[in-house]
Structure formats: C-alpha cells, structure tokens
Amino acid sequence: MPSHDIASEKRARSPWAWFHRFGSPAYFYRFASRWGPRAGWAALALFAVSIYLGLFVAPPDYQMGNSYRIIYIHVPTAWMSLFTYVVMAVAAGTGLIWRLKLSFCLARSCAPIGAAFTFCALVTGSLWGKPTWGTYWIWDARLTSELVLLFLYLGYMALESAIPDRRTASQAAAVLSLVGLVNIPIIHYSVEWWNTLHQGSTVLRMDGPSIDNRMLVPLLISAVAMNFYFIAALFSRIQCELLDSERRTQWVREVVNG
C-alpha cells in the first residue's frame, strides 16, 4: 500500500477525525439538516407528555397550590439559559484558539436562543413571584444575576452587529462571552452565597431531590424537551448562518440549486 494511503487511513481512524469532519461547514450543514428536524419532533412529543403530566397528574403544592406549575417552563428555561451560555462561550473560545469559522457560527447562533431562554425564565419567574412573594420583581441575587446574563447575551449580539468585519466582530464578541462566564457560577450559587428570597435547589441536591416524584418526572421530561428544542433551533440557525457566510462556495450553490 502506498505511504500516502496509509497516512490517510491513519488520519481517518484518529480520535480527532470527527473534530475535523464537524469543522467542515458543508458536512455540518448536512448533519444539521438530517438531525435538526428529528430533534424538533422529539421536543414536541416530550413537551406534550410534560404538559399532560404537569397539569393533570402532578398534585397541587401544599403551600403554593396550582401556581407552582409554572416551574415546568420556568425551571427548564432557567437551566437552559445557563447551559446555552456555556455552549456559546466554549464555541467562541474554540474559534479563538483554532480559528474555526464554524465555531464562531455556532456561538452566533446560540446567542439569540440563549437570550430567549433567559427572557422566558425572567418573565415566568416574575409571574411566579407575584403570588409567592407578593411582587413581580425584587433585586434578589439570583434574579439580578440572571438579568445580567440577559444583558450579556444582548451585548454579545450588539457587538457582533456593531463591527463591520465579520472576523473581527466574532473575535471581539468571543472575548466578551469568555469574560461573562464568571456570571454562571454566581447565578448557580447565589442562593447559597447570599441571603435571598429565591428558594434553593430542590432537584440537584447531594441528598436527592426534595420534590414529589409526581412533580419531578414532568419537570425532568420538560428539561429534556428543552434540550431537544435547543438542538433543533440551534441547527436551524446554524444552517442559515452557513448559507450566508459560505454563499460564494460551490457546496452552497449546489444546495440552493437543489
């Protein structure tokens, strides 16, 4: 076997081979086209199950009655607001290190989705706070740090749009996203570090969840549904980003022309 064929075969079997494949815009576009819709259908099915269990099977809370049921939207969106920011920052950092256009594209696609999750978490939290605390908003450590997260998402998108050169804009926004990572542990541990009205964790506890299983199961199903929705929305946005950024390439012409 010729030496160059042996080298090619070794590269194909390398653990980093998947990394190089997914770094190809054309390959990732086809991957997203295949798995994005499937993730969307999975999210829809899981949401339906979660809504049924959360509204008709889970019992009322002994203190909050039925008003607690907003947790099936509030808690998963709050979780996803943090998770999406971490994904965005890691993708942006990867783009800075390896100069991968796809990584910057991934980070740009995460920002509006994460902002939507954060906004939804803040709104549903305010609606939940009115019957629980007697007010829609209080400058609580958890609420304030979550609001800062929304500003970080908006700042990232504004910085991306403010600089005409796409590469420079992506690099500047990437630095901002990495600096903003310091806010993630602040949000997570705020109820432990400061006196706060926001209740502590009832699911992720060392001694196990302190919530009834009939309430816990639909919450976890809703969280999984949110993850599938994130994948579907992310893949859809990445496809649009790739078609725009790679519009002069041959593979985009082939996609557009069918």
**How much helix, percentage-wise, in residues?**
over 70%
Overall residue-averaged pLDDT value: 88
Listing every helix as H and every strand as E from the N terminus to the C terminus, the arrangement reads HHHHHHHHHH
How is the biggest beta sheet arranged?
Answer: none
- Estimated structural class: mainly alpha
Number of strands: 0
Ranges where pLDDT stays below 50 over 5 or more residues in a row are: none
Rough shape?
globular
Query: Treating each run of at least 4 consecutive H or I residues as one helix, how many helices?
Result: 10
The rounded Rg comes to 21 Å
Q: Whole-Å distance between the termini?
A: 38 Å
Give the percentage of residues in beta strands.
Answer: under 5%
Describe the structure in your own words.
The chain is mostly helical and 258 residues long. It has helices at 3-13, 17-22, 25-57, 71-98, 101-133, 141-162, 166-180, 183-193, 213-245, 250-256. The chain has 10 helices and no strands. Helix 4 (71-98) packs across helix 7 (166-180), helix 6 (141-162) packs antiparallel against helix 7 and helix 6 runs antiparallel to helix 8. The mean pLDDT is 88.
Features:
single chain, 258 residues, mainly alpha, 10 helices, globular
